[in-house]
What we know:
By secondary structure, this protein is of the alpha/beta class. 41% of the residues lie in helices and 18% in strands.
Amino acid sequence: MTKTGQRATEPSCRWRTAKYNTEQADKLVRALNIDITLAHCLLTRGIETVEDADDFLSPKLSQCVMPDKMPGVTAATEAICSHIARKNKVVVFGDFDADGMTAASILALAIQAVGGSADIFIPDRISEGYGFTTNALSRCLELHPATKIIVTVDCGISQSDACKEAVSRDVDVVITDHHKITGPLPAEASAIVNPELEGTPANLRHLCGAGVAFKLAHQIARRAELDKEKFRALANCLLPLAAIGTVADLVPLIGENRIIVSKGLSIINNPNRDTNIGINELKRTAKVNNATSENIGFALAARINAAGRVGNPDTAVTLLNTKCERNAVRLAQQLEKDNTNRQKEELDAVEEAQSKAASLLAKRPGSIVIFNSNWHPGVIGLVASRLVSRHRVPTVVITNGEDGFCRGSARCPEHENLDLMPLLASCSHLLARHGGHRVAAGLTIAEENICKFCNEFGEVCAKATEGLDLRPELTIDAWIDHSSLNEATAKTLQRLEPCGMKNPSPKLGVCNLTLSKEPSSFGKNRQDNWRLSFKETSLNGILFGKKDLPFEEGDKLDIIFAFSRDLRGNLQMSIRDFASAQT
């Protein structure tokens, strides 16, 4: 207890105040006529020169790298355009998440814009699983028997078997993907586009599947020599799709990704006759007045993802490609229903998983592996993310598949000394296949191997996490005074938008805020969302995901927060962490 009777509270994160060169900060302030807090934020993001800062604060399409500078794009374009010239059917083979579906829509719309015929195929999450598999290929060719070329988006880089099978059936294959290259490239592919390939320009290395598809679409349009009006109309249609896919896939919002999202958001918020009808209706249905890099993730992308998780991905794909407003209304309403179902299934699964997590951690502190045959495959990734967020250990959530194997989603806390892929690789002899990233992966496993996997994964995780402080690190861009808690500061920092990975919403620290009343909970059926009010400012603070908040009127807090707005547009503080005031 403190002297005032307030219970001392420690932060949930590792606080780290960013360091920067004060001379460089002053130089940016003078040269660009910006606020010192904004200069500090630029420096903490590694943006040090006046030229780089000016480019960052004013992203322009003219800053984009020409698409033919990306390895494989020219060859892919020639392969696709040769089939378009021969009036052959092109099938764009996507994935059942928002990145995969927006990527597929981008490429199909671009091919159609230059006079080609393109259909989209999305594999079934349950029966066929992720990626360019032979099972999915068979169904694809059954549905589209006239296919002469398949172009994958957001998948295929590590799936040579399906590529080989397609070519044996006289179907050319172009692979476009952005996932890590973990083995030999598909030798039979006519072309391969992946930002992981050697020679990729630095600004393109973080592209997602939709970003890669956008670069290829740009080159196809250049190759077709579209006139300025048609080119602009196509860009206005594709950029919002690329923006949604980029935000949804949690890739760094730096380099060209920042430009894509910035311009895509501008078009989403200022629709005209060339923009995507489906996105306009999705925005209306989701009640998004002003789209940002934050709300297109949890509002628009979440609804697209819901179709791939618990509904039919064709609903989302058809919405993103429709030219009919009446169809757009119907399809957006279906996505709304899918999202409601997804939320319920997720909530039920999370509650059940949380109830088991404590006992599992008591037996094996370094990891969580949970198997439940009744959970929908579309929610297990969300469940794993929730468990990691709360318990801060590597987590795998597994459920049944329909091909005799079980599907698993793995998640891992972000830490510079922890990588999920080697942890899974050490257990690869128990897995049918696996793949993914540093903090997120998918796997396929036979049910009889789950127990062994649980033990072996637990052992390697225990060694890997020993001695690590797995609380998330929270970088504080600047500490500000009470007087800076206002619209002027928020509008200044808004120039950093769009924010996301590698360019997070600026985190500000403020000390000695006094609660004007006891915190109140809010939200439907939720007791872990809180609203806080303070004597020193008219801005409310909101806090999510905290079960116990033992504070009363008069308690003093140090908080770390980001400016945000409520649904009515009112400025508020989104509290990321807090502690009892130290002074």
